[in-house]
Design brief:
The chain is mainly beta. Strands 1, 2, 3, 4, 5, 6 and 7 form a 7-stranded antiparallel β-sheet that branches. The relative contact order is 0.11. The protein is elongated, with a radius of gyration of 37 Å. The chain is built from 4 helices and 15 strands. The chain has 2 domains: 170 residues, Hotdog Thioesterase (Thiol Ester Dehydrase, Chain A), CATH 3.10.129; 122 residues, no CATH class. The chain binds zinc ion. Zinc ion binds next to loops.
Amino acid sequence: MKPGARDVRADAPDPLYEQLAAYAGCPAATAASGKDPVNAPMIRHWCEAMGDTSPAYRGPGAVAPPTMLQAWTMRGLAPDPGPDDRTGRSPAYDGLLRLLDGAGYTSVVATDCEQEYLRPLRPGDLITYDSVIESVSPRKTTKLGTGYFVTTRMDVRANGEPAGTHRFRILKYRPVERPTQRKAPLRPRPVINRDNAGFWAGVAEHRLLIQRCTRCATLRFPWLPGCNACAGQEWDTVEASGEGTVFSHVVMHHPSFPAFDPSGEGGPYAVALVELVEGVRIVGNVVGVPYDKVRVGLPVRLEFQRMDPDLELPVFRASEGG
Ligand code: ZN
């Protein structure tokens, strides 16, 4: 098992795995040959790319870097190898991949390789190889998703002599499904306490209640335990008529708080300080006009907007086009 992978219900039957495992031992490529003989230009490019300045790979008597083993067998980038195809790719390997694709394991990632070197490769060596599907793992779950590790082993020959083996492992997997639709975040819940519970009780009845000091009749909003004018602690309420005008406003561009945007799209959106005709001011969203049509003096009218199943809030609808 690869690091980070774990069995998926190891004891559960997996009919697909039974089919996949039957491919173990089947050829992935037979009597294939490299596109080019081992050659100095490819060795030079490789060394330049790797920053490898070893004299062993230069001049007369040079050998190829052993880790180039796979490079001599690569089929190239062309999707169709064409009529001179010498990759020897077998129907079995295509069948294995088709089976995985058909079952939804459509993604692929190379996970690791192991190489063994039996003889140095020198410019002029003709490369041939056979490849076998060595194993298919039981179904595993990784951070990328759930799938199957497929290991192939390539036996590489140079001028017909065994030169090395290249064991290559891929994970064919079903990508972890990401939610395609973002769930709109909920507005933060209001903190309801003894000092403001009456306000929220009013909202529940679609009434916007303003506190009024029973000693000096001063209106106050937001709700407070005592009167700022006379320090009186006794109060009653008056219900706002709902008429008001925008006293001031800001447009939120960044950072985005989708929960506060009446459209739910994350803004921009306007937040207004609305002056009610009763004389107090309240902060709220302006709805009914684009955010850039909100202006000081804009007439608005109170309404109650359901934000989610558990929350209704007062908002202010522009009563003209802005
Ligand atoms: Zn007072």
